[in-house]
Amino acid sequence: MKIGIITDVHNNVIALNSMLKLFEKNECDEIIYCGDIIGIGPFPEETVQGIKSTLTVAR
User: Fold this and answer.
1) For position 58, what pLDDT does the model report?
2) pTM value?
3) Which of 6, 14, 46, 54 has the fewest other C-beta atoms within 10 Å?
4) DSSP state at residue 38
5) Are 4 and 23 in contact (CB under 8 A)?
């Protein structure tokens, strides 16, 4: 199982998208977000939407 870990995004949607592409390329099975997703950068809405697009609901 491959796990991608992201932390301290701080609204940097460009870096977030780069990491998500890298995780996809490396066929990560899960992504763990460790915090500081928004806070000091210029793209809070885009960052949140990018992260929400990767979430799955546990059943």
Assistant:
1) 57
2) 0.81
3) 14
4) S
5) yes
